[in-house]
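Lecture notes, unit on protein representations.

Consider one protein chain, 129 amino acids long.
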Amino acid sequence: MTEGLLIYLSETQVESLATDLAAYPHFRSWVTDLGSPALLRLLQKEWGTALREAGAPLQFAPAAGPAFFAPFGWTATEVRGAISTARELNRLPPLLRILSRLPGSGTFHPRRPWSGACLLTRGAGPSYP
C-alpha cells in the first residue's frame, strides 16, 4: 500500500517503484491513491510553495490515470473515486452531494480535479479506461 506517497515522487521514481514491485512474484496486488493533473495543479496552488520549501514538492499525477501502471505489469482492477465513495457513505456536505451526482463525476479525467484509490493487480483483468 502506498497511500499518500506517490504524489511526492517524480514520474521516473514511480516507474521504478512499479517495475521493482512487479519484479517480485509474491507482490500480486498493490493499493495506492492517485490524483489527476487538474487536482495536482489545485493542490500546488494551495500548498505548493510551503511543500517545496520543506523539500516535499507535489509531483506525480499521471494524465493516463490508473492506466499509467499497465506498461509496468499492473492492471487497475478496481478504482474508486474519493467523492463518489464519500457520497456512497453519506459523508459529503450538501453542495458536494449535488455535484457528485453529475455524469462522470466519479471517473478519472485528467482535466478535472479527481482523486481515488486504485487496486492494481498483476496480470490480466478488467482495466480502468
